[in-house]
Amino acid sequence: MRRLRACLGAAAAVGLTAAGTTALMAGHASGATTALDNRWYAAAPYLMPLDNDPPDPAAIMDATGLKAFQLAFVLAPNGGGCSPTWGGTAPVSSDTAVQSVIDTIRAKGGDVSVSIGGYGGTKLGQTCSDAASTAAAYQQVITKYGLHAIDFDLEEPEYENTAAIHNEIGAAKILQQNNPGLYVSVTTAGTADGTGWFGKQMLLEAKSQGFTPNNFSIMPFDGGFNGAASQTSALTNFNAILQSTFGWDQATAYAHEGFSGMNGRSDTGEYFTQADFQTVLDYATSHNMDRFTFWSLNRDRQCTPADNGGRTSGTCSSVAQNSWDFAKYSVKFAGATPPSTTPTPTPTPTPTPTPTGCKTAWSSSAVYTNGDEVSYNKHNWKAKWWTQNEVPTASDWGVWQDEGPC
Q: Degrees (nearest 5) of the Cα angle 321, 322, 325?
């Protein structure tokens, strides 16, 4: 299904990465703010600026005191190649839409980190020929937006690809060296044991390359978790993995450990409430962990009947909340005090969606592109990007968007 194309040659890539520091300084000179304290980049929640009904970051900042946002996701072009795009479709080189979002945030004294990878789509580590060319692609993003922080979100299916992870970790090391002071986080899947086999292999790759980011973060959701106690247990287990892998003591491991949660109802039907976030926040701060973030601000608002509340959504949490309740835990982690709010509202009853007409049935052999609609299992679905033979399923990060029963 993945179509690989030739990308930037190694010689050109090395030339670009060698100029990384100069390029970053030029990017900063073109309008980026002075870097925030790293604690803000460590607390930055994920925001999709071009998809999932993007909220107004200025309104979130006013309501919560939040200063940093984790913009997602930079990917390889859907058609293949080694140049950075937003979501596989919007080239970074010609972008103005995300730049406008960044300008809005910076005008209010905030800043952004950019996340690369995520779940779904084709990653640059898969399509670029080596670590140097992968780094050169990411350097374009750092330079264009004058970034002080970047996140490597390494998960399925990329982290099952040994060559791709070698390229991503190698690229992260190059960027760290060529952009002094750059805050680098690495995010991967969480399990009850901390992280799975592929996550452990990624850590071993980092060790073999001599790469140490500001933190390695796990995502303890979508893996049979049940509230905060299961998440803090996974964080404890992951700490032990960091110790054994890198030879760190417990305190050093916590200083390089991060949490990346999911607010409200997860893709697999787990629920994480405000109380769960508070418990994990207390754990993170008491153990001096480096990062506390979540997916996502697009979901940090209560569902309405029109949102089909009660199912996992990319645009609301499916739990009772005031808008931006979960963002305030990030603000607390950063060391600031959020503004006070009104009490949490009474839960909205789960609505019964009104079925609509079914679209043409999904076919495993057909090719679908962004916006194409199909029906499957008595629901209509809309494709977010190019796909073939991917069964429609309700996943916030998957290729298909559930449009409700039909």
A: 85
Q: 73: cis peptide before it, omega within 30°?
A: yes
Amino acid code (one letter) for 109: G
- The number of beta carbons lying within 10 Å of the beta carbon of residue 12 is 13
Using one digit for the tens of pLDDT, what is the confidence trace for 23-43?
Answer: 343 344 344 568 999 999 999
- What amino acid positions are annotated as catalytic residues? 155
Helix 20-29 / helix 131-145 crossing angle, nearest 10 deg: 20
Task: Tell me how many helices (H) and strands (E) the chain has.
Answer: 13, 17
Query: Which residues share a beta bridge with 292?
Result: 259
Q: Which residues contact 249 (CB under 8 A, 6 or more apart)?
A: 243
- Residue 218 CB contacts under 8 Å (≥ 6 apart), including other chains: 187, 188, 189, 190, 194, 195, 199, 234, 235, 238, 258, 259, 260
Average pLDDT value over all residues in the chain:
88
Q: Which two tokens stand for residue 220?
A: 């303890």
Q: CA 155, CA 147: separation in Å to the nearest integer? A: 23
CA 306 to each of CA 191, 335, 344, 369: distance values in angstroms, whole numbers, following the listed order? 33, 36, 20, 25
How many CB atoms lie under 10 A from the CB of residue 343?
A: 6
